[in-house]
Amino acid sequence: MTIPPIVLLIGATTLIRILFAATTGLGVDESYMVAAGRVLSLGYFDHPPAAWWLSWGAAHLFGSEHPVVVRLPFILLFAVSQLLVWRIGCLVANPRAGFWAAVALNLSPVFGITTGSWVLPDGPLDAALLGAALCLVQALPARERARGDSGWGDRAQGDHAQGDHAPGDHAPGDHAWGWWLGAGLCAGLAVFSKYTAVLTIAGAGLYLLSSRTHRRWLAHPAPYAAALVALLVFSPVLVWNATHHWASFAFQGDRAMGLRFRPFAPVATLAGEALFVLPWIWLPMMLLFAGAFRRGAPWTHHLLAWLAAPPIVLFALVSAWSSQRVLFHWAAPGYLMLFPLLGETIARHLDRRWVRRMIVFTAALELAAVATIALQMQFDWLGGSLAAVMRKDPTDEGLDWRSVRQDLDARGLLLPGGLAAAMNWRDAGKLGYALGPQTTMLCLNRDSRQFGFADPAGRFYGRDAVVLLADPSGRSVDEARRWFDSVDVLPDAAVRLDGRVLRTVRVLRGHGLHAPQ
Fold first, then answer.
1. Quick one: CA dihedral 150, 154, 158, 159, positive or negative?
2. How far apart are CA 498 and CA 515, in angstroms?
3. What is the C-alpha separation between 204 and 139, in angstroms, rounded?
4. pLDDT for 318-371, tens place per residue?
5. Could you give the CA distance from residue 136 to residue 4 in angstroms, rounded to a whole number?
6. Which of 166, 214, 275, 335 sits at a 20 to 30 Å CA gap from 159?
């Protein structure tokens, strides 16, 4: 029995990700999500619940917050994403195109490494968006199939062969309702993962408006039923925001606001996105993206291009005036929709030696990078050389700060049900994750993010707390004193790897927590 290539690809890459997850600690954002997400909620300050629930559920299912445990749902979801992008590639072109689309997805670092392994909203977001796209590809030509057309072949016969001008004005069959409701469910799960999913969903609406053939669906109840399903899935987020002064919506909305116009910022944003995707993947993607809008292109290409357009275009434009830096991975869902087109192109040109060499080179480069990171986290084999090359040693950011917990345990400062505090949400995430769920972590800062909702400081006024300053400057100590009646300075703790001190953490004992003065 021959094992399908896509199964081998998914199995091998999933195993690599599990090994990578088991040998590296949680990053800053991951630690924050796990530590601040220990209190289950209908909504969260930064993002909708999907990623928070997944890490919380994995930790409770296995009784552990080990990195490989809390990352496992995201690794498995990326396996699902590979399967979905393969299936879309099969429908858009053929199985070879689907396979190489999945290969390219693995080779792009922003997908294959971060989305595919880390505790971030992008894992469930991408899987849900691909599910919605697959359902749309299946649902849209249902009118033509209902009147007896041959259906889908290797190149999506019918509509695909005739571009956007295929005839057909017959009522869709019952199977179309199933695909539309599936699209609504997946769209709801996407927005339940990350708010920016609305951009891709808007792209579907723009496609329907622009397509002379599929515009007829706007007069059919199925798309509106799908929208209702999506809204029902998303409704817990609305309930949480309505009962918390719309805090999450306000936070995300403020990121797009700004007063200064920077005309060259979109160019810098696109260049940064190209680095995250990989330039030699990004450039052909953008050419295929532009070509998919040409007159006479297959309707499936039109659809994927419209799904891709809003995230790619909007974030580039927003960067021109946003008061905050637009992060390069925000537009990743747009590029996600272009992998089936890229897979079709790779399959068509695979006989060219330079294409095969580029694939092998990229795979070797990524494996080398992953192995280097894992070895550094385990054995500190680079020692302090990173600090000599860079302005700071980034090793401690990818390391779990368990040595701090060991130092505090040895002094008897951590008691079950005790309080610890940090002065910003990043340090609270790293320290809170390291200290474990038996210690309540407070974030003593106006910008406390989800910590301010999970365990608001006001709930613990009058209590004593161990205050940990990962940036042990005099200013940090003065900030901590504002929150307590009195503060004792204790011996420092340290973040260590194989005996080397990566970071010194100042330890204080705060007596009588109160509102800052």
1. positive
2. 40
3. 12
4. 888 876 788 889 999 999 999 999 999 999 999 999 999 999 999 999 999 999
5. 25
6. 335
What backbone phi and psi angles, to 5 degrees, belong to 344?
-65, -40
- Cα separations (Å) of 36 from 40, 53, 248, 457? 9, 11, 15, 13
Please tell me whether residue 190 adopts helix, strand or coil conformation.
Answer: helix
Q: How many CB atoms lie within 10 A of CB 335?
A: 26
3-state secondary structure of 327: coil
Taking each helix axis as running N to C, give the angle between helix 425-435 and helix 28-36, from 0 to 180 degrees, rounded to the nearest 10.
Answer: 70
Return the beta strands (E) in 360-483 as ranges: 419-422, 440-443, 465-469
Contact call for residues 180 and 226 (beta carbons, < 8 A) = yes
pLDDT, tens digit (0-9, with 9 covering 90-100), for 8-40:
999 999 999 999 999 999 999 999 999 999 999
| Residues 386, 391, 396, 397, CA torsion sign | negative
**Single-letter residue type at 289:** F
Residues of the chain under the 50 pLDDT cut: 145-170
Determine the Cα–Cα distance for residues 305 and 307; give it in Å rounded to an integer.
Answer: 5
pLDDT of residue 10: 98
SS (H, E, C) 133-163: HHHHHHHCCHHHHHCCCCCCCCCCCCCHHHC
Strand partners, 506: 469
Nearest C-alpha neighbor of 36 from the set 491, 442, 500 = 442
Q: Are 101 and 90 contacting, i.e. CB atoms less than 8 angstroms apart?
A: no
Q: Report the helix count and the strand count for the chain, using DSSP H and E.
A: 24, 5
Alpha-carbon span 98 to 352, nearest angstrom: 19
Q: How far apart are CA 190 and CA 208, in angstroms?
A: 20
Element (H, E) at 361: helix 353-379
Q: What CA–CA distance (Å, rounded) separates 322 from 99?
A: 38
Helix residue ranges, H only, 24-121: 28-36, 50-62, 67-92, 95-107, 109, 116-117
Q: For residue 362, how many C-alpha atoms fall within 13 Å in the half-sphere facing its CB?
A: 20
pTM above the 0.90 mark? yes
Query: Both tokens of residue 268?
Result: 């810098």
